[in-house]
Design a protein that fits this description.
Elements (H helix, E strand, L loop, with lengths): L7 E5 L5 H9 L4 E5 L4 E3 L4 E3 L2 H8 L4 E2 L7 H9 L4 E5 L7 H4 L6 E5 L7 E2 L2 H7 L4 E8 L9 E8 L6 H24 L15 E2 L15 H10 L6 E5 L2 E10 L10 E5 L2 E5 L4 E9 L5 E2 H7 L13
Parallel strand pairs: 1-2, 1-6, 2-5, 6-7, 8-11
Antiparallel strand pairs: 3-4, 7-9, 9-10, 12-13, 13-16, 14-15, 15-16, 16-17
Length: about 325
């Protein structure tokens, strides 16, 4: 079969979507439109900023659509006028309704950051790191009405280093996913791409993150706490309380064993801030007082006296 170029409409918003968009812009398949979320206030100053995908699209002369609701008639009409062959979704952030799924001639495919059917849902990278997974990947899948349940088109795998954060893993998966996406579309364009149904019985769900997820339960094992800290970086972060004050824990290591009560500060001097867990010891490497900047443990302890023998808690 002779290869043809597909007219692509791209759905995406955050940094994870950028490598996929850039790969499409370098491919033979023209991006004829971009759908992204509205401009939002961000940062401490709450200044309105444009999504990265929007900025890249406008610089390439591509029409950008930013609907409040995907069922808005103006948006559906605009989407239809793009006359697209295929929709590509990469961290879009909104559930796609039937009227959107039916607009591109060949439907939509998604760059999903997990090895489906595991970790369907909003936070697959973070949940995989929190759960201590040693491997993850990207699945290029067909979008269907059920959440992340469509047939799989291409799968690529990547190891998770025991000290990597979700931010590290996401950066790597975004690049892997971009390459796999273009390969899948190229194969689709010549009719050589197979679709493999998912095993629904093996599916797991990666729930959206909340700030409450970050509360450290010191009765858990040291590896579990370490995984929580790196899994919630860069947001919403793991945290604990000392004398009622909230401390954000940014970097940790797994230390030796201890029979002290979980949460007990074992050592707090120099570069060493060691805390007893339900199994083992957590060595805190970077920490932040809420509202202040991140600090190394040495810098933090120089200005904050923590007493060995006292306890950290999961609530004030």
């Amino acid at each position: 079969m002779i290869a043809r170029a597909f007219r692509i409409v791209f759905f995406g918003t955050p940094a994870f979507a950028m490598p996929s968009l850039d790969a499409l812009l370098r491919s033979k398949h023209p991006v004829v439109g971009i759908v992204t979320q509205r401009d939002r206030p961000r940062g401490r100053g709450q200044r309105t900023s444009e999504p990265p995908v929007k900025i890249r699209g406008l610089s390439a002369g591509i029409p950008v659509l930013q609907p409040d609701r995907l069922k808005d008639e103006w948006f559906l009409d605009s989407l239809a006028r793009l006359d697209s062959d295929l929709g590509v979704v990469a961290a879009n952030g909104k559930l796609l309704i039937d009227r959107v799924l039916g607009k591109p001639r060949l439907g939509l495919i998604n760059v999903h950051a997990s090895l489906l059917p595991r970790y369907r849902g909003a936070a697959p990278i973070h949940r995989a790191v929190i759960n201590g997974e040693h491997e993850t990947g990207v699945t290029i899948m067909r979008v269907v009405k059920a959440l992340d349940a469509g047939p799989m088109l291409k799968v690529v795998k990547r190891p998770i280093d025991p000290d990597e954060t979700s931010e590290d893993v996401e950066r790597g998966l975004a690049i892997l996913g971009a390459d796999a996406l273009v390969q899948a579309i190229d194969e689709m364009s010549v009719g050589t791409l197979d679709e493999t149904p998912q095993d629904d019985a093996a599916a797991t769900y990666a729930a959206r993150l909340t700030k409450e997820d970050g509360a450290i339960d010191w009765s858990r094992s040291a590896p579990a706490i370490h995984n929580l800290v790196r899994g919630l970086h860069p947001w919403p972060h793991a945290f604990t309380f000392y004398r009622g004050r909230r401390l954000i824990v940014l970097r940790t290591m797994v230390g030796d064993t201890s029979d002290a009560v979980p949460g007990t500060i074992l050592e707090a001097q120099g570069d060493r801030l060691h805390v007893s867990a339900g199994g083992g010891v957590v060595a805190i490497r970077e920490i932040q007082v809420e509202g202040k900047r991140p600090m190394s443990v040495r810098e933090f302890l120089a200005g904050h006296a923590l007493a060995a023998g006292e306890r950290l808690t999961d609530r004030p």
